[in-house]
Specification:
With 227 residues, the chain is α+β, with helices and mostly antiparallel strands. The protein contains 10 helices and 4 strands. It is 54% helix and 7% strand.
């Protein structure tokens, strides 16, 4: 059975993507959670991952002797190993577009990442409102999401970005968490897509796991005081 090494579910957006992909697709795997304590070389997190992955980051997928430590590479490997599950769209053009938007998410949206760190347990509309007011780059990132998702949902008829669930929806699931946590203003049809993603069994399982952790880390929450 594959092993998937992840970080804290409440915070680890990168870990969420392959975990949701595997769970939603019904692919069995063993979860190994490596708790965030710090990211310095001498942290327990780095010490635990160092012997497993040369990058020292999560997620990491281990299949026997094979170690895959990049989120998009993991998604591609899973799709190659399970071609019958349709994890990429069947149509060649749609498949290329799905890969393009996943790669864009992989390398972009830095303002959204920086201003709205993933925190599933929290409700931070005031933080979101301030960031929305003061950070034009955040507004530009959200506008890009709205345009991208609107076009895909219209073209493919929903309920997911390419009609049925694909890697693209798993890839943007953490973004849906951020939009919800920070109550960022988006059109109603985008909010409806966010709620559909949150209701997917694989995503719901991740959310439930995040809410059960109760492992609050100050360095992951610079924007509020824990009561």
């Amino acid at each position: 059975m594959w092993k998937l090494y992840i970080g804290n579910k409440n915070y680890s957006s990168w870990s969420m993507r392959p975990w949701v992909l595997l769970r939603q697709a019904g692919i069995p795997f063993e979860e190994v959670m490596v708790r965030f304590d710090a990211f310095s070389a001498d942290s327990q997190f780095k010490q635990r991952l160092g012997p497993i992955s040369p990058a020292g980051k999560v997620p990491v997928l281990v299949d026997g002797e094979l170690v895959i430590w990049d989120t998009l590479a993991i998604a591609e490997y899973v799709a190659e190993q399970h071609p019958d599950l349709g994890l990429w769209p069947a149509d060649k053009a749609a498949r290329a577009r799905a890969r393009s938007i996943c790669a864009e998410m992989h390398s972009g949206f830095q303002a959204l990442r920086g201003a709205c760190m993933m925190n599933i347990e929290a409700s931070l509309p005031d933080v979101g409102a301030l960031a929305w007011r003061d950070k034009p780059a955040l507004r530009a990132d959200v506008q890009r999401l709205v345009e991208m998702w609107s076009a895909l949902l219209t073209e493919h008829g929903g309920p997911m970005l390419f009609g049925s669930f694909t890697i693209a929806d798993a890839y943007f699931a953490p973004v849906c968490m951020r939009l919800k946590t920070y109550a960022l203003p988006v059109p109603a049809h985008i909010s409806a897509y966010v709620e559909r993603v949150r209701a997917l069994p694989g995503v719901k399982d991740w959310i439930d796991g995040a809410l059960a952790e109760h492992d609050f880390l100050d360095f992951e929450e610079p924007y509020r005081l824990r009561r």
